[in-house]
Design a protein that fits this description.
Blueprint: H1 2-16, E1 23-27, E2 36-40, E3 49-54, H2 55-59, H3 63-81, H4 91-100, H5 108-122
Parallel strand pairs: 1-3
Antiparallel strand pairs: 2-3
Length: 133
Amino acid sequence: MEQLKKAANELSQKHWGVDYTGEIELTNAKWKNRQACYLIWPNAPEKTVVIQMSHYVNRTLTRYEVLDNLLHELVHWQLHQSGKKFHDDDQEFVDECLRVGAPISGTKKAGMAARKWAEQQWGKKLYERGETG
């Protein structure tokens, strides 16, 4: 747990120049469709923001993958704290993930946002497999 909190602070300092001020919780959940999550507890001021990870899931991942998941959740936190859109499918979220090297979610909308970002960066339209321009 302390290693995750230390890593969160290091990543947050590296990418945004601030310490991570939320909590990190490790659960015993055996998630099948998620690797980590960002939670907001609006009715509990002492614990308003939590990055939740699973002992079980983390044991199935490499250290690099765990840190990638942590960075992804930190992007949620940073944008949320800045008053910006912070959901997986928001263009601002995808833009920031790509800027800092965090993985994006696998949703179609997130993929479209990533394509839009790439097209803006490279100045040309990208095509789906099988499409021609």
